[in-house]
Amino acid sequence: MSLHLGAIVDALGGRLEGGERDTLIERIAPLQTAGAADLSFLNNPRYVAQLAASRAACVIVGPPLREQALQRGACIVTDDPYTYFARATQLWARAHGLHAAAGVHPSAQVHPQAQVAASASIGPLCVIERGAVIGEHTVLKSRVTVGERCRVGARCIIHPGVVIGADGFGFAPERGAWIKIEQLGAVAIGDDVEIGANTCIDRGALDDTVIEDGVKLDNLIQIAHNVHIGHHTAIAGCTAIAGSTRIGAHCTIAGAVSIVGHLTIAERTHISATTLVTRSITESGRHITGAFPMDDNAAWEKNAATLRKLYQLRERVKALEQQLQDDSRARKP
């Protein structure tokens, strides 16, 4: 199924320039591989050379790139090309019936005391346990587990293999053994949340683990018991967040970040990939990086060895500075 350029502009806005409304678009594609019936977009000026070479029928651009886009053909001019592109993919999915249909797959297991909205979509082999609640227009892909009393809000997308409400990791030591602490809380997930494949969100020990509205979680993330994530925070894959950490709203956390437990991360904090966060971040808007730079292995080992001696080097420098000051005072008449 194709869409006319005019239909796209009517639905999403923007100005169509240098092209015809009845031009048929057969797919949305990257600049490099777009063909003569494709719609593409350019958001970053660094890739303007790809614009000139692209065979796309039409390119979504911002006002600064309008002239370059018109030199090659049709364009849709909009203030935010990346957001326009995102909404174009949503329009395309709706037009092509790519969204999951409401209902419960025959292979899914839904406890009689669970509540599933009639407009929700529950995929193959999902398990929804006693007292769980699934909100309106929420989609659970295949093999999703929602544990007892856990709540998922409206319009959420939960990808395959996600586990919501497994027990948190809680044990008390006793004479060389471990005594399990029963996890009596649940998981509360807000509206418009998306959770990537094989991510695990543990239930709280006493109070609930909370994921607020609009949070976006990538694949393979571990969220421990009683973590609280503020609205519209986005977290990339392989990040691990230990128990009782509170993360503010509108944060971005890159891949493979590790956050130790019982910390507070202020709103609008941005954490770079592979950073180990060991203390609270209380000032909003900070950009935190803690990754050791990539290098050739031999050079990296030498730098790592030096890093281990950094404290001793600091003490030697302080001692030398003190000696120089003492010598200077001794030479004064």
Describe the fold and architecture:
This protein is α/β, with parallel strands linked by helices and 333 residues long. It has 3 domains: 3-95, Udp-n-acetylmuramoylalanyl-d-glutamate--2,6- Diaminopimelate Ligase, Chain: A, domain 1; 103-288, UDP N-Acetylglucosamine Acyltransferase, domain 1; 297-331. Helices cover 21% and strands 26% of the residues. It contains 6 helices and 36 strands. The strands form 6 sheets. The chain has a 10-stranded parallel beta sheet with strand order 8-11-14-17-22-25-28-31-34-36, with no helix packed on it. A 9-stranded parallel beta sheet has the order 9-12-15-18-23-26-29-32-35, with no helix packed on it. An 8-stranded parallel beta sheet has the order 10-13-16-21-24-27-30-33, with no helix packed on it. The chain starts with a strand and ends with a helix.
Q: What topology does this entry show?
A:
Layout: E1 3-4, H1 5-12, E2 15-17, E3 24-25, E4 27-28, E5 38-41, H2 48-53, E6 58-61, H3 66-72, E7 74-77, H4 81-95, E8 103-104, E9 109-110, E10 115-116, E11 121-122, E12 127-128, E13 133-134, E14 139-140, E15 145-146, E16 151-152, E17 157-158, E18 163-166, E19 171-174, E20 177-180, E21 187-189, E22 194-195, E23 200-202, E24 209-211, E25 216-217, E26 222-223, E27 228-229, E28 234-235, E29 240-241, E30 246-247, E31 252-253, E32 258-259, E33 264-265, E34 270-271, E35 276-277, E36 287-288, H5 297-308, H6 310-331
